[in-house]
Hints:
The protein is of the alpha/beta class. It has helices spanning 26-36, 66-77, 81-86, 96-101, 192-195, 197-208, 218-231; strands at 9-14, 42-47, 58-61, 90-94, 104-107, 111-114, 121-138, 141-155, 163-167, 175-176, 178-180, 183-186.
Amino acid sequence: MAREVGTVLTIANLVPDLLGTYGDGGNALVLAQRARARGEETLLVSMALNDELPDASIYLLGGGEDGPQRLACDVLARSSLASRARDGATVVAVCAGLQILGTTFCVEGDDRYAGLGLCDVTTARGSIRSVGELRVRVGERLLVGFENHGGRTTLGDGVLPFGRVEHGRGNDGVYDGFRAGTLWATYAHGPVLAQNPWFADAVLSSVLGYELEPLDSVADLLYEERCRAIRS
Length: 232
């Protein structure tokens, strides 16, 4: 789904009434604001539980508890999200949203459920719960956030990890999240795009088709301060 030059950039927050743990809905606000700061006209929309999937260039999925996660997956499986993603729409997913994008995930013990099947990713129930600060090396950048999940995620063919874990657990204690085509996923809450503005800009650049100029914003300054504190 190629975005035409000069069109409005539509950003959709999906079922935030089910998947909105730890302020993940803020990721949509961050994308919209940072796009507007570069002169892009944006439209921010939300899909509630009984709504039709809106037409958008970027879809966001947050985290949620087991029951809401299962319900969200059922709702999204009946929507056109899978076909839109396969046509090139960008999806940014956090925690439960990450698990939903894959082929199967476990909740409520070892009960296994079908995901949306957008990539070869499976999530089993881990032996311990992963709770606390998460720090991930993504190329030359650091991603910081907070994780709280009981999953152990395995990546299959054609799916690359988003980054290597330096502190915390992420997927399996080694890697966090994944990249597969236009899919971006991480276990980091926060909201992660507010805590890591470079990540928001990377997503926007991939959608807009050009490299964004840096912003001199409070969020960017706070991110640099966090990184300095980590290195000291």
